[in-house]
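quick q for whoever's on today - can somebody do inverse folding on this one?? i tried earlier but teh output was garbage lol. tokens:
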């Protein structure tokens, strides 16, 4: 067999639809006496196919509704009173996930994708800062219970969010790398996620910004080999974000996560 250099696989989340009645009944039976709800079930389903993923990540866009429910002072998505958090449900989620997989991350929408509005603060930038602060507190509550870190799925690089939240244990993930503002992102974050066809763009950015990790999304082994022209293999990861049919998806990512030698 030809020699291979294995490249770590990193998950940025898995989208999960509504479980069937049979799936939900089986899950409830397994957790008898423990508790949990539909979102807990979806979290665990999203994690299940990631057994061979080096850096697993439960959740996805669907997990945003849990965080909305943990934000105090909002009524139907509008801030109308003093903002605060009620972290009990995310703490329960964190305990359930940490019991299943050591080192698990959690993925959810960045604040600008939650669709929240302000009718209390009266200043757009201050409202963004408050919302980012609430996110940071909820993330800390989950990390205290064993979650490794958080992935924030983003459509735009918003400086207030990046300034308040980008950190070693919070990574912003560009939902559409082809249209994302990498320059703004890299002012705050040293991880860069690109599509294989953007390796040239990544090489240009590496000349200007400090990039600690280059992550190719859905790469084949040849893409990872091509990236070594610009980055040491130790800098590389194979990234995945599953939007459907996740069992086969993760198998495909892990099977291609190597560089031929």
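ok took a stab at it. sequence:
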């Amino acid at each position: 067999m030809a020699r291979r250099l294995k490249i770590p696989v990193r998950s940025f989340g898995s989208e999960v639809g509504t479980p069937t009645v049979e799936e939900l009944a089986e899950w409830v039976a397994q957790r008898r006496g423990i508790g949990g709800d539909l979102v807990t079930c979806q979290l665990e389903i999203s994690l299940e196919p990631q057994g061979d993923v080096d850096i697993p990540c439960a959740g996805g866009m669907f997990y945003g509704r849990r965080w909305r429910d943990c934000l105090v002072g909002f009524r139907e998505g509008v801030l109308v009173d003093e903002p605060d958090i009620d972290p009990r449900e995310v703490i329960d989620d964190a305990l359930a996930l940490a019991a299943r997989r050591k080192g698990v991350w959690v993925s959810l929408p960045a604040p600008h994708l939650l669709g929240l509005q302000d009718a209390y603060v009266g200043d757009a930038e201050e409202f963004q800062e408050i919302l980012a602060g609430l996110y940071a507190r909820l993330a800390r509550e989950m990390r205290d219970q064993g979650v490794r870190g958080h992935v924030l799925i983003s459509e735009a690089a918003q400086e207030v969010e990046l300034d308040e939240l980008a950190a070693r244990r919070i990574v912003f993930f560009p939902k559409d790398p082809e249209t994302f503002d990498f320059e703004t992102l890299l002012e705050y974050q040293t991880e860069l996620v690109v599509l294989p066809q953007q390796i040239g763009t990544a090489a240009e950015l590496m000349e200007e910004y400090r990039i600690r990790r280059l992550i190719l999304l859905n790469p084949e082994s040849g893409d990872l080999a091509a990236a070594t022209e610009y980055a040491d293999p130790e800098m590389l990861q194979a990234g995945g974000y599953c939007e459907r049919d996740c069992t086969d998806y993760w198998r495909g990512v892990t099977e291609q996560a190597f560089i031929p030698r």
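fwiw Residues 12-254 form a domain with the TIM Barrel fold (CATH 3.20.20.210). also The longest helix spans residues 124-144. so keep that in mind when u check it
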